[in-house]
Design goal:
Number of helices: 7
Strand content: 5-15%
Distance between the termini: 40 Å
CATH topology: Arc Repressor Mutant, subunit A
Structural class: alpha+beta
Order of helices and strands: HHHHEHHEEH
CATH superfamily: Winged helix-like DNA-binding domain superfamily/Winged helix DNA-binding domain
CATH class: Mainly Alpha
Number of strands: 3
Number of domains: 1
Shape: elongated
Length: about 120
């Protein structure tokens, strides 16, 4: 039997069922963009720090051994992706995780890689 002949039998009921629950292209694009944010170890390190405590840019820079400018750049990416939020106290801005979903995403990732 030819390989191409084996591929011609489409299970239309399965294809139809999956197609009905498949997210739209825009949602899939947005999800892919979110996961790209997790593709940078510096951003992941920042998120892990923010698991433990909200922190200002200078604290993050000290803890991670980076410049405040580099930390600020990464925080902008994380804010744009709605993964971190901030609050102002006087002249200082404190950053924290946006919500429990961020922690859940990273917890699931850690669980996956440590299996």
């Amino acid at each position: 039997m030819e390989a191409s002949a084996a591929l011609t039998h489409v299970h239309e009921d399965i294809v139809r069922r999956v197609n009905e629950i498949m997210p739209c292209e825009e949602e899939l694009f947005d999800l892919a963009e979110l996961f790209k944010v997790f593709g940078d170890s510096t951003r992941v390190r920042i998120l892990f720090v923010l698991f433990e405590s909200e922190m200002c840019v200078c604290g993050l820079a000290e803890l991670l051994g980076m410049t405040q400018s580099a930390i600020s750049h990464q925080l902008q990416v994380l804010k744009k992706a709605k993964l971190v939020r901030y609050r102002r106290e006087g002249k200082t801005i404190f950053y924290s995780l946006a919500d429990g979903h961020v922690r859940a995403i990273l917890d699931q990732g850690m669980e996956h890689i440590t299996e």
